[in-house]
Amino acid sequence: MPREQMAAVNASPEDLPMKKSFVIPMLRELAAELGFTLDVEPRYGYAARLVLPDGRTRLLRNTVFDLNGAGATEIAKDKDYAAWFLARSGYPVPEGDSFHTREWARKINSGRTPEMAWEYAKQLGLPVIVKPNSKSQGAGVSLPRTKREFFRAVARASRHERVFLVQRPVVGKDFRIVVLDGQAISAYERLPLAVIGDGRSTVAELLAAKQRRFDAVGRDTRLQPDDPRITEALRFHRFTRDSVLAAGITQRLLPNANLSTGGDARDVTASLHPAWKRLAAGIARDMNLRYIGVDVMTEAELSDPPGSYVVIEINAAPGLDNYASIGETQVRVVRDLYRKVLQALAA
After folding, report:
1. Second label for 214, Cα 20 to 30 Å away, from 19, 113, 123, 312?
2. From edge to edge, which strands make up the β-sheet containing 96-100?
3. Which helix (H) or strand (E) holds 207?
């Protein structure tokens, strides 16, 4: 197989050439402003080398920068490990456990099979969250409510990797706080993919209209209207894609609130309480990450001090392209963040 084809096969979805990097062009402009050179790999435009005036170099791959240590980054990518270390540091995390695909369980002689996962799910009480252990952007996340849906969810997660998680769902608002070198740079609420009825349009038509709105504002999110998770969510509420929702009715379509799968965002940076800033900075410190996205679930607003909350996940390479699509204010926040990232790389 030619090298180019091998690269495409081995690349993760966000690396494929049909989706251009949001951050690389911005970094190129900022590097020029700062007197640096950004040498971008030309085939995919996702990897680059930052050349500093004194000849030193730093490497990056889209939003993965030479800021975080390799060990800390690997732990952050592994949701099960990250949750264990967060809990050891005193932070509340979702109740859950990890299990293996049948093939992997057989290979490593593990009893943590999908069947054991089902018994665990029944102990937690349905519905549960099923998701791959190390994938990001909401890939493979499901909210099964029946045994049949559960094993479909396991099969879906297993297509992504050989370890999957079963967790008790957490109720509340989903927020992300981005921290760089101990400073909270941005914060926003993440809202799951949903459509709002107008009394005339079908769910399918509302989804198509949402995609057109994304395209109009330059957001490169590609909705997947045939996603089986949408089918399950609609079925639970006795709808189909041909159903016409009453005016003003909001129908949630996916179990995750990732912006990359069509979710929306509400910026709360300006109102972020200092106690939340300290909490996010503390998590960054305890997980030894200079640059981090901290995902928390809470029923309160982040303008209030932390009360009851759960740290859902951490991300050592938080993407901000969909956040930037909210408006010009957010674009300026992102540019300022990446300027600080380049300055930190040069320090």
Report:
1. 312
2. 96-100, 163-167, 129-132
3. helix 203-216
Q: Is the bond preceding residue 53 a cis peptide, omega within 30 degrees?
A: no
Q: How many CB atoms lie within 10 A of CB 40?
A: 17
Q: Which amino acid, one-letter code, is at 174? A: D
* CA pair distance 16, 284, nearest whole angstrom: 30
DSSP H stretches of helix in 47-88: 70-77, 79-88
Mutual angle of helices 79-88 and 70-77, in 10-degree steps: 110
Total domains in the chain come to 4
**Together in a domain, 217 and 329:** no
- Please tell me whether residues 334 and 273 are part of one structural domain: yes
The pLDDT score that the predictor gives to residue 311 is 98
Residues 12, 43 within the same domain: yes
Q: What does pTM read for this prediction?
A: 0.86
Measured distance CA(212)–CA(189) in Å, rounded: 23
Domain that holds residue 35: 3-61
Specify burial of residue 28 (Cβ count, 10 A radius: 0-12, 13-18, 19+). Answer: middle
Identity (one letter) of the amino acid at 50? L
Same domain, 186 and 285: yes
CA 172, CA 154: separation in Å to the nearest integer? 25
Weakest mean pLDDT among 114-123, 139-148, 272-281, 318-327: 318-327
Rounded distance between C-alpha atoms, residue 164 and residue 329, angstroms: 38
